[in-house]
Amino acid sequence: MRVVSGDQEELPCGVYVSVARYRHRIFVEQLGWQLETRDGLEIDQFDRPDTVYVVAQDDEGRVFGCARLLPTLRPYLLAEIFPQLLNGLPPPCAADVWELSRFSAVDLVGSATTPVGRFSSTVAIQLLGDSLACAAAHGAKRVITVSPLGVERLVRAAGFSCHRAGPPVVVGGHPLFACMIEVGGT
Amino acid sequence: MALSSDGYVRVSLSNFAKIPLDHLLSGLDDDLMNAAPHAAQVAVISGYTEWLSRTKPAVTLGWDWQLKGVNGHAACHRSGLPRSNIMLIGDFNEDLGDERTAHLLASAVDCLAWQELALAAIQRKYS
Q: Largest Cα–Cα distance of chain A, in whole Å?
């Protein structure tokens, strides 16, 4: 496994498109999320020039994990789409708070046949740790994320502390919550 | 009880104990639901449960559980520490910290009669 990170321009040639295709397969085809798509690519309004990506690839360059980092000083997913997850708080807007979204660590070409079998917690923990380190390198002290409930276990397994910024809300049949992860003091 | 800009609801343990919690949802762990059955395999049944206050700000508390047999009787027991938006505070309004808060909340959870509602919700969800 190798992990690369950067904005669209900084990623190696072709990786940004591969990530968009991978996201389509994971979030649209497997999880059934109702998202904007175009030509088999999942790209939305938060995929901007200042968006930072963290990408896990196998030895042949195939994407099997990704994360998206957005500064909260500009529009981001939680503030724009899911502010109801914040328990009445205004969405964070600070240079040292970044948002993590579109996190996945699923091997689409592995031999396992079930979605769970293709989910590698070892890879997920490493990718999450690398993503949070990348956010910290961009000045984040906290990372906030719209998450399914299971993410808290993953964050703690990666060695980071986290807490809820509000109660879970069932959206589209799935309980989601805002998770605040400390990246400055681990 | 106050909501802070970091998302925590800061509350003393004595005041937390007075907050009624409603059952929100419960479920079985995904890996359990996707596991292929094998003959004579010892199954560990585990899941999660989520509880919520009606207060403003809302208090959210969730924890994992396992179904264990003790003395011939099966019962649900909390496993691991609770996850929440709560930061317990001391006599001088000082934060008790994440770890101490989680352990105190765990003790509080163990005094709640949560098992029956959680199992009923799971039966409705998976039946």
A: 46
In angstroms, the first-to-last Cα distance of chain A is 24
Reported as a single tens digit per residue, the pLDDT across A117-152 is 444 578 888 999 999 999 999 999 999 999 988 888
Are A83 and A165 in contact by the 8 Å Cβ rule? The answer is no
Q: Is the ipTM of this complex over 0.95?
A: no
Q: Which amino acid is at B7?
A: G
B7 with A163: Cβ contact below 8 A: yes
CB A141 within 8 A of CB A96: yes
Chain B residue nearest residue A143, CA to CA: B6
pTM of the model: 0.88
Give the up-direction half-sphere exposure of residue B66: CA atoms within 13 A in the CB hemisphere.
8
- B7·A167 Cβ contact <8 A: no
Residue of B22, B85, B100, B103 to mutate for A, most A C-beta atoms under 10 A: B85
Q: Which residues contact B15 (CB under 8 A, 6 or more apart)?
A: B1
> Hey, are the CB atoms on A149 and B50 less than 8 Å from each other?
yes
B34 touches A: beta carbon within 8 Å: yes
- CA dist B63 and B48 (Å) reads 6
CB contact under 8 A, A89 and B5: yes
User: Which stretches within A24-84 are classed as H helix?
Assistant: 77-81
Domain ranges of chain B: 9-31+44-126
Mean pLDDT by 10 residues, chain A (186 residues): 95 97 94 89 96 95 95 97 96 97 80 45 88 96 92 84 94 90 76
Q: Which one of A164, A182, A183 would you mutate to disrupt binding with B, by most B Cβ within 10 Å of its Cβ? A: A164
